Amino acid sequence: MKKILIAISLLFLAKLNYAQDLAKKIPANAFTVATIKGDNVFKLMFVKDFNESFVGKKLLTETSKSLDKNFTSIEDFGINLEKNMYYFNQLSDSITYNCFLIPLKDATKFEKLINDKDKKIKTEGDVRTMILPDSSSIIKWNNSMMYFVTGSIKSSFFADSINSARYGIKEIRYQNNYDDVAMADSAVMVTDSAMVSTTEPVVEVVAPPVAEGWKVHPPLKKQTINKSKTKATKSTKKKPAKKKSAKKKVIIKPKKTEEVTEVEITDSPIMGDQDAIDSTMEMTQTGKPDDQYDEYQKERAEQDAKKKQLAFVWMTAQADKIFNSTYESIETNKSYTASLDNKAIAELWVSSLQEVYNSIAPEFGTYGKAGLMQGYGSLNAKLFMDDKSFRISTGLELAKEQADAYKKIMNRKLNKNFLKYVNSEKAIGFMGYSIDTKAYLEEFPKLMKQTYGSFLGKNMEEEIELGTDLFSLLLDEEAVSKVIKGDALFVINGLNTKDVTYTTYEYDDDYKQKEVTKTKKETLPDFLFMFSSEDNRLMNKLIKYGINKNYVTVNNNIYKIEEKKSPVDIYFMIKDGIVFFGNSLTEMQSISNNSFNTSISKAHKTLLAKNNFSFLFNAKNLVGKVPTEEIGGEETAKKFNETLGKMGNVYMISNPIKGNMVSADICAEIPNGHENALKYLFSLIENAAK
Amino acid sequence: MNLKQFYKLLLLIVLIPILSSCFEVIEEITMRNDGTGDVVLTINLSQSKTKVASVMLLDSVQGYKVPSKQKIQQELNEAVAYLKKSPGITNVKSTSDFNNYIATIGFTFKDVSNINNITKNILAQQKIKATNTSSYSYNKATKTFSRKYQATNTTKTEFNKLKSKDKAVFNGATYTSVYRFESPVTSTTNPASNLSKSKKAVMFKSSIMDLINGKINVSNQIQLSK
Q: What is the ipTM of this complex?
C-alpha cells in the first residue's frame, strides 16, 4: 500500500512537473516549436562550469558591459535554467508571430536586464509589460515566465484589396493612380463581408483599425474631381450608395467611435483630395515624376505605419491571450508529443512541411500554387549530446500512401558480400545505400505526381497520368532491377602511393635544354565502388563494344578504361553478381583471386548492413598519411593533420521507416579525452576564438 | 547518380590532399651580337598533371572558374596573334601539350627591348595587373646585356591577400632563365646566376615564392667580351 501511495505521489509529482512546463502555454496551432532543454544542457555542464568557460565569461562580460552592471553568473539573468525554453511561431494569412517563452526563476533579476529609465514597464497584477521602442515587439512577464512576441504582417495579405480595404490600408503602387479609384471601389464592396467574418483574430480589436481605416476612402468631394474620367464616373455612381451602407455598418459600434470617425473623415480627406488633384493633373500632364515619386514614398510610409500599428494591436491581443486565458495547448497535438525525447538537449518541430510550402506560396505569386509537397507532414529534429558524440536526429512524417511507397522502395538490404571489401583499419570513409530498384521505378512516378502534380496545374493531371504510364511502358522495371539491383557501396580503403611520370628539363654544361621524363610518388586514395547485378548480359555487351572500340582493355578479367582525360586509371570487373569499379589494380587483383584481406569492424558492419543509407568519414585514418610535400609545406601539413586529428568518426544513417515516419541521424563522435560533447564544443569554440 | 556526377565526387576525393602543385616557368633568350635574338617561354605543369587533369574536369576549384582546354588554347592563340602584330617581332610560334600540360611560346626579335612592352601588354590584355618593372636591354657598342627587375611591394601585398590555400599553389613552383650569347661572358652582377662551361650562357634559378617575396632578385648585368 505504501508503495502504491509513493507511486501515486510520484506520478502526481511528475504530472505536476510536467504541468509546470511552459509547453502548456504554446497554443495548439503553433506552427513551429523549438525547445532548449535547460535541465539536460546543465546536466552536461554545471552552471558554475559554464560561468567559468570561455563562452560563459564572454557572455557575462559582454552583457555586463552593455548594461553597465556586474554579472557573475548566468543565474543573475533570472532565468530558470532547469526548465525548458521555447520558441514558437504562429502563422495566419495576415500575420506571423514569432514568440519566445522563457521560464523565470527570479523576476526581479530579470527586470534588472531591462533598462527601464523611461519607466516603460506597465504592471497589471503580477503581469508586467514592456513595449520595445518601435512597437515592433512586446515583452510580457510574471514571476515564473517571460514572453516575447514580435509580429510581421504579410504583404501578400494586404496585396489583396479585399483585405486591405477591411483594415483601411491602401496598397500603394508607383504611378498607378487608377488604382486609387478601383481600390476605393472594391473596398466599399467588401465592407459587408468584413463585418460578418468574425473568426479573424482581428475581431477582438476590430474597433481601432476599422474606425481609423475609413478615413482612407475618399468622400464625395474626390469623386467630383474625378468626374472627367469615364472610368471614375462609373464608380462614382456606385459609390455613394455603397458608402452609405458601409457607414451604417460602422455605426453599429458605440457612438463614440462614430464621432471619432467623423472627425477624422473631415480631417484626412483634404489630404486625399489634394493627392487626387495632384495625381489627376499629373496624369494629364504626365510630368513631374519626382514629385510623384515623393508622393508615392510618403503614401507608402503612411500605409506601412498603418500596417505596423495593426500588427501591434494584434500582437498585444495575442500576448494577453497567452497570459490571461486558457486555450488548447500544443501538448494536445499528438504529432508534437510524439516527436519529443527526454534525452534531447534541443528539439525542433514543424507541424507540416506541406503547410510551410503553402504559407510561403502566396509570396511566389502565380507559381505559388497550393498543394505542392502534398503528403509531407510534420518535421522534427533533435539534438543529442553525450559522452561520446553529437547527434542530430531528424524525422519527416509522410502520408500513409507515401510511407507505404517508401517502405516498398527501402525493402532491400545491402549485399552482404560487399562487406568483405571494407578494410576498417584503413578505411577513410564509405557510403552505402540500398533500395529496391523495381519498387523505386514503380513508385517513382506516383511520388512525383503527388509531390509536383499540383504544380503543373489541375488541367495537367491527364498528361501526368499519361507520362506515368509511358514511363512504366518504356521501362521494364523487373528487367532493370536485375541489371541494377539497387544496392551499392563506395569505399575508400586508405591511401596508396604510386609512381607518376612527368616531363621536365635538364641543362648540359652549356645550358642547352634537354627534355627528360622523371617519375615521382603521388599519394592517392584507393576507391572501390560496387553494385549488385544479377543480369550481366547488358554489361557484357557494353564491355564487348568498349573493347572493339578500344575504349576498354582487358587483362585477367580485369578491365581498364582507356580514357586519357582521366587523372587516375580506372579498372572494373564483374564477379559473383557484383560489378566493381576501382583505381587500384592490386585491390582489383586481390578481389579477383579471392585474396582480399577482409577486416571490417563490427561497428562498420552494423552501420552498413542495418541501414538503407549510411555514410562514414573517419578522418583519423588520414592523419599523417599524406606526405608533407604533397600537402604544400610543413605548416599546411601540420594544420591539416591537427584538424583531422580533432575529428572523430562522422557518420550519417537513414533509419528504417517507423509508422509513417522516415528519419535519419547524423552523428559526430568526439575524440577521446573529453568529458562530453557539450564541453568539447565549448573547447572548440575557445580554440577557434584564440 | 549519373556517371558524370559520380566522376566529380570521385575527383573531389582524389583532390583531398591537393592543391600544392609544382610547376616550372622557363625563359630562354638567345642573343646575337647584332642585337637580334630569339625568346622561348615555357610553362610546364607536368609534375602536377594528375591534379591539373582533375581540376580540368571540374567547373571550378576553390572559387576559381577552371578554364576549358579550348579556352586555354584560345588565349594562347590570342597571345600569338598579338605578338605577330607587335613591332620588331617575327617568327611567332606556340605549342601546347594537354597530356603533360606544357605550353610554350617563342619568337624572334629585332631588338631585345621589343620584349619589354609585350609582357606588360599581354598581361594587361588578360586583365592581369602587371606591377613589376621589368626590362631588357642590349648595348651593341659596349656589348652589355642587362635585365632589370624591380620587385615591388604591390606584388607581395597582392599575394598576401590570397587565401592560404591559394598561396599553396605557388609552393614548389620554380622560375628558370637562360640567356645565351655568341660571345663569351666576362662578368655578371647577379651572384645567384651561373655561368656555363663555355662561358656563353648564363642561368638563373629560383623558387617563385622567393621572387614574390622579393628575397631574390633576377636583375643581372651581363658583360660580353669585346
A: 0.82
The minimal CB distance from A510 to the residues B44, B176, B198 is found for B198
Interface test mutation site (partner A, options B2, B3, B5, B14, max chain A beta carbons within 10 A): B14
Helix (H) or strand (E) holding A195: helix A178-196
Q: Is the dihedral of CA A366, A370, A376, A381 positive or negative?
A: positive
B contacts of A503 (beta carbons < 8 Å)? 44, 46, 100, 102
Taking the complete model, does pTM exceed 0.90, yes or no?
Answer: no
Low-confidence ranges of chain A (pLDDT < 70): 1-20, 115-119, 171-289, 356-374, 450-461, 564-565, 629-633, 690
Q: Please state at what angle helix A230-251 crosses helix A255-285, rounded to 10 degrees.
A: 170
List residues bridging with A519 in a β-sheet.
A501
If one counts every other C-beta atom within 10 angstroms of the C-beta of residue B107, the result is: 23
Which of A496, A508, A511 is the best residue to mutate to test the B interface, defined by the most B CB atoms within 10 Å of its own CB? A511
Q: Is B27 on the interface with A (CB under 8 A)?
A: no
Pairs across A and B, CB distance < 8 A: 87
Q: From CA A247, how far away is CA A667, in angstroms rounded?
A: 64
In this prediction, residue A373 carries a pLDDT of 61
Inter-chain residue contact A505 with B19, CB threshold 8 Å: no
- Integer Cα distance of A658 and A280 in angstroms: 66
B14 and A524: CB-CB below 8 Å?
yes
SS3 for B140-175 is CCCCEEEEEEECCHHHHHHHHHCCHHHHHHHCCCEE
CB A480 within 8 A of CB A437: yes
CA angle (A118, A124, A125) in 5-degree steps: 130
Q: Please name the member of B17, B26, B53 whose beta carbon is closest to the beta carbon of A631.
A: B17
Select the residue from B47, B164, B178, B195 to test the A interface by mutation, using most A Cβ atoms within 10 A: B47
Helix (H) or strand (E) holding A42: helix A38-44
pLDDT band at B99, cuts 50/70/90? confident
